[in-house]
Structure to design on (221 residues):
């Protein structure tokens, strides 16, 4: 495959990839991968390099859709797949082995730590953290400052898949490691869910909840 490799001083170099490949700036016509839908460089496979012009660090072996939109200071680890129609804000970190499915929208300062799977059309607010192994299935709404402990699973759709945003994780909700949230449940703001709990019904008042199914143990966080 032929490609143009001359450097352009206007381009911001991809730090972790190769100095030959540059991320695009708004008024630069040099090669950035975005005109070549399938670009194979050594073992790196890019459906297209990222766009936007702001500094972004990208690791190895990622597959990133051509329309990925990101803000400033984003970082992507290795072995991660970012599907179509995904938009993330500033200061977003997407770690290793993440699968982000189409249509996800996320705000600023979101951390997808690693081994994360976010299913299509989830909406994620600002300052949300997903620790290792978190899974969100289709159409979950996550509000600002929510925290997901390792291996937590949030189900978004019932069998008929009609519960878009039926599952809502409220602002400042802390979900302990290994917790499961049933589809169609809504958790209000300022809630802590203990590790390995199961949430099977709406939580409508703030406090600390533990167990399977969850029961409130305290009002205050
Ligand atoms: C829920 C939690 C915050 C409660 O902490 P706490 O306020 O210090 O509560 P206590 O340890 O005093 O426990 C109060 C009671 O709840 C029980 N309990 C606490 N956490 C529980 C849990 N996850 N599941 C079931 N019961 C739990 C305790 O056994 C205790 O019961 P008892 O009164 O019958 O003895 C904490 O136990 C927890 O699960 N934290 C999440 C940790 C985590 O996942 N971190 C991820 C890091 S990345």
């Amino acid at each position: 495959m032929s490609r143009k490799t001359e450097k352009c001083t206007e381009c911001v170099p991809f730090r972790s990839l190769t100095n030959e490949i540059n991320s695009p700036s708004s008024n630069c016509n040099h090669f950035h991968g975005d005109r070549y839908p399938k670009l194979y460089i050594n073992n790196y496979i890019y459906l297209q390099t990222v766009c936007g012009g702001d500094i972004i660090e990208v690791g190895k072996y990622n597959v990133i859709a051509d329309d990925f939109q990101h803000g400033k200071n984003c970082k992507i680890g290795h072995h991660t797949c970012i599907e179509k129609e995904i938009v993330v804000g500033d200061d977003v970190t997407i770690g290793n082995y993440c699968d982000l499915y189409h249509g996800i929208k996320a705000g600023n300062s979101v951390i997808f730590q690693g081994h994360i799977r976010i299913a299509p059309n989830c909406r994620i607010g600002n300052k949300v953290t997903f620790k290792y192994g978190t899974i969100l299935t289709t159409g979950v709404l996550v509000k600002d400052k929510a925290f997901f402990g390792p291996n937590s699973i949030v189900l978004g759709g019932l069998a008929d898949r009609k519960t878009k945003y039926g599952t809502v994780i409220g602002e400042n909700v802390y979900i302990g490691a290994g917790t499961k949230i049933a589809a169609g449940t809504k958790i209000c703001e300022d809630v802590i869910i203990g590790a390995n709990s199961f949430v099977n019904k709406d939580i409508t008042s703030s406090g600390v909840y533990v167990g399977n199914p969850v029961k409130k143990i305290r009002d205050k966080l």
Notes: The pocket of coenzyme A is lined by residues 131, 149-150, 176-177, 192, 194-197, 208, 210-211, 217 (CB under 6 Å). Confidence is low (pLDDT under 50) at residues 1-45, 47-53. DSSP finds no helices and 27 strands in the chain. Residues 5 and 20 are 6 Å apart (CA to CA).
